[in-house]
Amino acid sequence: MAARTSVPDAASVLIAGGGTAGHLIPGLAVADALTAGGWPAERIHFVGSKRGMDAQLVPAAGFGLTTLSGRGLTARRVNLTNVAAAASLAWATLRGIALVRKRRPAAVLSLGGYAALPATVGAVVWRVPLVIAEQNAVASATNRLVGRFARAAAVPVNGTGLHREVVTGNPVRPEVTEAAHESSSARERLGWPASATSIAVFGGSLGSRRINTALWSALPSLRNRDGVFVYHVVGRRDWEKRPPDPAPRDDGATVREWYRAVPFDEHLPVALAAADLVICRAGASTVAELSVLGTPAVLVPLPIATDDHQRRNAEALVSAGQARVVPDADLDATRLLAEIESMSTAVNRAGAETGGSSTFGRPDSARRVARLVIQHSTAVPEGVERPAEPAEPAEGTV
Fold first, then answer.
1. 259 DSSP β-pair partners
2. What gap in Å lies between CA 278 and CA 291, rounded to an integer?
3. pLDDT band at 343, cuts 50/70/90?
């Protein structure tokens, strides 16, 4: 405890961004890695969005939080909604600049997205060392805007378009690394059939209408397929619209023995670790978690994702032999059944003990990003070891 009281005011870190779980969870993982390395939690402060999950998740994790107004633009056109959003974001940016001037942190970590812009611009204005953490294979607009000013950009793969890329992998929540180490017992914990081929299907917290509809249409064919178990996270948006539960199997097996549907799963990494195959979208956090767990996947990228970044995310697992991609427009019951059949023989579990088959996400990604933050900070707390400056801090891995 003595080390905490002797920390100089300058030895603090601002983590800029949030608004969505995809941006916020990697930031929390990095914050946890910093504290594990000796950086006091009271010297780590988040600057996020009033509109997102920040107010629930950040204080619960033990870190300080300032929320600012602002929202992302809905489309690249001029309308009243975008004018109001731009005005709100401009005001938030002024507040972010003032906040950075007041706190004068040792470093700012930008998570990307509209919520990261205010404090990130503040870091540029006041020449505070800036480190970027990009979650996707294609850099966000915010990170592209300020990327030239960053000391380093932590990325999941090379080629995001940012300057000074350092391939760290996308940080994942601690539950994922825990699930990776306990994958052999995950199925028993969940009460899934021990000998069945287990398929986990989900589309995010709200759900995916395309994936849900394809699966619902395929259930009659899957119903009597021997040795198949389907775990379906429908999503809150479609939960009340789901069709009636399918009938029991002809062999007398109850519905629950071969198909289980839930609206949401707070502990989804356990299900992903237990599954033999996952069918889902290709958001950055999802791809990183699958990479760490090594579970084979059929990925259906969201076609309206900015800069088609979900397709680029999916390519990381495809190139590692861990996944296949199905375009959103091509997914129906017939294609879904065909992919299940082909994936069951074409792709094997990569193995959590090897850290998965792709570097998009790694068990130690959060530590790697934290190392970059410490390396470029102007000051570090007593007891925190600063990594040596690399000879060539541009592209590479840490």
1. 230
2. 12
3. confident
Q: Tell me the backbone φ, ψ of residue 49, rounded to 5 degrees.
A: -110, 145
Domain ranges of the chain: 2-171+364-376, 175-354
Q: Which residue has the tokens 């007041």?
A: 102
Contacts 24+ apart (CB under 8 A), 51-57: 51/19, 52/18, 52/19, 52/20, 52/24, 52/115, 53/18, 53/19, 53/20, 53/21, 53/24, 54/18, 54/19, 54/24, 54/115, 57/21, 57/24, 57/25, 57/28
Give backbone dihedrals phi and psi of 185, rounded to 5 degrees, phi first: -105, 0
Quickly list H helices, 182-247.
183-190, 209-223
Instruction: Look up tokens 């790697």; give the residue.
Output: 368
The answer to whether domain 2-171+364-376 and domain 175-354 are alike in fold is: yes
The CA–CA distances, whole Å, from 218 to 181, 210, 233, 287, 339 equal 33, 12, 15, 24, 12
CA 194 remoteness from chain centre: 29
- 2-171+364-376 domain in CATH 3.40.50.2000? yes
The pTM of this model reads: 0.87
Cβ atoms of 142 and 117 closer than 8 Å: yes
* CATH number for region 175-354: 3.40.50.2000
Q: Is it the case that residue 396 has pLDDT exceeding 90?
A: no
**In the predicted model, what is the mean pLDDT of the chain?**
87
How many angstroms separate the CA atoms of 218 and 268, rounded? 23
